[in-house]
TrEMBL record:
Transmembrane segments: none annotated. This is DUF1697 domain-containing protein. It holds the Pfam family DUF1697. It comes from Rhizobium croatiense. SUPFAM superfamilies: SP0830-like. It comes from the Bacteria.
Length: 175
């Protein structure tokens, strides 16, 4: 048995309806996963499962989500070991926990696509690719940056963003 982290790209089903975390935990149980637990209300799921490849879990969770909630959502799954490795690679530890964000990618991000983002950066912002994931220090509120709106699936690939505070919170849940 292993521990996994699943990150949902979105929990918004319609403009006035979001998936509540109780329903997400129930879905995990229905799929046969054990001890599902969530962190904050933004689609962070930790659970136990038999030894499986993360991609197999992604497919099962995405299919189960679509069947239960009627909408496809990209879900990124990492094992506890790969999550802890991600935690150890933050290149911007001197940044603020709510302003440093990692875009956890399904496949390694293309460096050329990241290079194309640089003209959108403002003074103090930093970006780095580490282990195929994209780290960004927004050096201010991410919601006020032009860079945030450019971090789309269409532009850089399937992935989902979490701030450093959430990354650390998930790490504490699996320790």
């Amino acid at each position: 048995m292993s521990t996994f982290i699943a990150l949902l790209h979105s929990i918004v089903l319609t403009p006035d309806r979001r998936v509540i975390m109780e329903d997400l935990r129930a879905l995990a149980k229905e799929l046969g996963y054990r001890e599902p637990r969530t962190l904050v209300s933004t689609g962070n799921l930790v659970f136990e499962a038999d030894e499986m490849r993360p991609h197999e879990l992604e497919v099962a969770l995405e299919e189960g989500f679509e069947e239960k909630f009627g909408k496809h959502v990209d879900i990124i799954v990492r094992s506890d070991c790969t999550w802890m490795a991600l935690c150890s690679t933050n290149p911007f530890r001197d940044g603020s926990g709510d302003q440093v964000i990692v875009r956890v990618m399904r496949l390694p991000v293309d460096p050329k696509k990241v290079e194309a983002l640089k003209p959108l950066m403002t003074e103090g912002q930093r970006i780095a690719i580490v282990g195929g994931d994209l780290w960004i220090d927004f050096a201010g509120k991410p919601s006020q940056s032009k860079l945030l709106s450019a971090l789309t699936t269409k532009r850089i690939g399937i992935g989902t963003m979490r701030n450093w505070n959430t990354v650390c919170g998930l790490a504490q849940m699996i320790m």
